[in-house]
């Protein structure tokens, strides 16, 4: 096993050594076409190691099991998420450059001289200040942090999920992080405020599950859960809304259990354990409402704009979209990648519901069954509601990254329950389906995750041009080159900038001709002179 792990890591090193992407063609398949044979051989080995580990786990000792599991998880992260950090010249995803610009301003001048998008200073205080401190005291540029941040983020999420699964399950701990990694195609895993809230949500679930499993009231854990919640509100003010809705769904599931329905068959003492979380939920709501009153302008505007967008889409009967905000006329390759993403979401929800049903119908840790299942249903409800009403920007990625947390844990719990009831051939079929789904999703992740990169890739020359624009903003040069960057750099994540990137990618010749036309000095009809 160790030899295979070493060989897999060696293949990854060879893949990043032999591959470098300096420019991007307007094709969703450009990333996978650029990857070397070493990458695909290594990814096949990762899938094989995962399958071998699942079915040979009984023969491993505890220490060996943890070491092999964590090593395999790290290698998987490097293959699926770390590769662009080494083969791209700059960080991927345009949002990163906007947030990086804000961090640089905070680092150089402090909050009193803040001139960028005000929401990063006033609404996402904790995240912005945290990254500014890291950049300043570690003497690392914000873009250097951003380039490798995804590796750190996914490593922390995987470690937290592994620890959570180990606290709940007897075995199959590795299922939780591997399920999450194989399905994380969304672009939100980057240097942005919500990434901190995502990490805090993982930590919060670990703490709440510990509270549910304990037989006595642990004031330390409760205090920790409160601190985490306050920090989450300060890091990304919209994330707690999703968590509160999920807690409400858990509450509804608990009400069903109090009705003593046969399908749940939950005893009174189990409900009393789950009520620990409900008491915290009331406190969380109070804290969040207080924060809304403090930051009412931003929160209320965002809520109102969301409701207006939903009502507008309902009135126009535009209740489902298959393309996102960054595409007007998508190419076939991009549309294929997007449809694959939608298919992955549908299968994820289906398997998640099936796993929740299985663990609710079997004996075991009933408070945890109710809590994890309710959490999954809550995130699913938010995502389906937003997508169905046409508000697709937040309906997919923003809820999906949180939905995967309970989904991954459900998969681990379900695998354990099926192992206990192995005589049932239908349950064994579910077990095989979970493993196959993880492996297939892992294999196609280079397509589903990086299909949008033609619209999010920043080349070295383009970044140099942006920096030049910023430095020469008040000089005569800026007027000659502003056609390249029609809006300020710090607002580079807005919708019209995404559409501009798409136009540039699809209409390269027209873009170049327009640039030359604006910068013409002399044109006699036979001879042209342009500014360089």
TrEMBL record:
UniProt keyword annotations, A-Z: Membrane, Transmembrane, Transmembrane helix
Coiled-coil positions: none
The keyword Heme is assigned to this record: no
Source superkingdom: Archaea
Transmembrane segments: 37-55, 67-87, 170-186, 224-257, 277-294, 342-362, 368-388, 400-418, 430-448
Protein name as it appears in the record: Glycosyltransferase RgtA/B/C/D-like domain-containing protein
Organism: Methanosarcina mazei SarPi
Taxonomic placement: Archaea, Methanobacteriati, Methanobacteriota, Stenosarchaea group, Methanomicrobia
């Amino acid at each position: 096993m160790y030899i295979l792990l070493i060989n897999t890591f060696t293949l990854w090193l060879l893949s990043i050594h032999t591959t470098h992407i300096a420019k991007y063609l307007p094709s969703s398949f450009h990333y996978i076409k650029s990857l070397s044979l070493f990458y695909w051989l290594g990814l096949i080995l990762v899938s094989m190691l995962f399958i071998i580990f699942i079915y040979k786990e009984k023969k491993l000792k505890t220490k060996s099991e943890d070491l092999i599991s964590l090593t395999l998880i790290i290698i998987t992260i490097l293959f699926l998420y770390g590769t662009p950090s080494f083969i791209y010249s700059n960080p991927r995803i345009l949002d990163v450059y906007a947030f990086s610009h804000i961090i640089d301003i905070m680092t150089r001048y402090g909050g009193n001289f803040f001139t960028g998008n005000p929401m990063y200073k006033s609404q996402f205080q904790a995240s912005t200040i945290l990254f500014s401190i890291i950049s300043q005291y570690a003497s690392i540029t914000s873009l250097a942090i951003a380039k490798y941040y995804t590796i750190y983020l996914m490593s922390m999420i995987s470690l937290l999920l592994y620890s959570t699964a180990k606290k709940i399950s007897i075995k199959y701990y590795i299922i939780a992080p591997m399920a999450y990694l194989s399905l994380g195609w969304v672009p939100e895993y980057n240097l942005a405020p919500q990434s901190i809230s995502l990490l805090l949500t993982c930590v919060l679930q670990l703490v709440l599950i510990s509270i549910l499993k304990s037989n006595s009231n642990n004031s330390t854990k409760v205090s920790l859960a409160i601190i985490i919640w306050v920090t989450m509100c300060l890091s990304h003010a919209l994330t707690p809304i999703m968590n509160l809705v999920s807690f409400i769904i858990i509450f509804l599931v608990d009400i069903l259990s109090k009705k003593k329905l046969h399908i749940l068959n939950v005893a009174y003492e189990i409900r009393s354990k789950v009520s620990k979380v409900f008491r915290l939920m009331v406190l969380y709501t109070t804290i969040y409402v207080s924060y809304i009153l403090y930051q009412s302008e931003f929160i209320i505007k965002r809520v109102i704009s969301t409701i207006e967008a939903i009502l507008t889409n309902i009135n126009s009967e535009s209740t489902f979209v298959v393309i996102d905000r960054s595409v007007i006329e998508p190419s076939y390759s991009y549309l294929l990648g997007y449809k694959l993403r939608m298919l992955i979401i549908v299968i994820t929800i289906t398997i998640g519901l099936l796993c929740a049903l299985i663990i609710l119908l079997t004996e075991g840790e009933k408070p945890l069954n109710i809590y994890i299942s309710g959490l999954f249903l809550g995130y699913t409800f938010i995502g389906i509601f937003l997508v169905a009403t046409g508000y697709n920007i937040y309906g997919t990625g923003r809820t999906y990254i949180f939905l995967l947390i309970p989904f991954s844990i459900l998969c681990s719990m379900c695998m354990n329950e099926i192992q206990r009831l192995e005589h049932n051939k239908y349950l064994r079929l579910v077990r095989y389906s979970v493993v196959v789904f993880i492996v297939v999703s892992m294999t196609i992740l280079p397509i589903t995750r990086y299909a949008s990169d033609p619209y999010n890739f920043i080349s070295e020359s383009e970044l140099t041009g942006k920096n030049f624009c910023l430095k020469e903003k008040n000089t005569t040069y800026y007027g000659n080159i502003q056609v390249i960057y029609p809006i300020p750099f710090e607002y580079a994540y807005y919708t019209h900038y995404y559409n501009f990137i798409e136009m540039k990618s699809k209409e390269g010749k027209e873009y170049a001709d327009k640039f030359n036309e604006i910068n013409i000095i002399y044109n006699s009809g036979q001879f042209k002179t342009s500014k360089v």
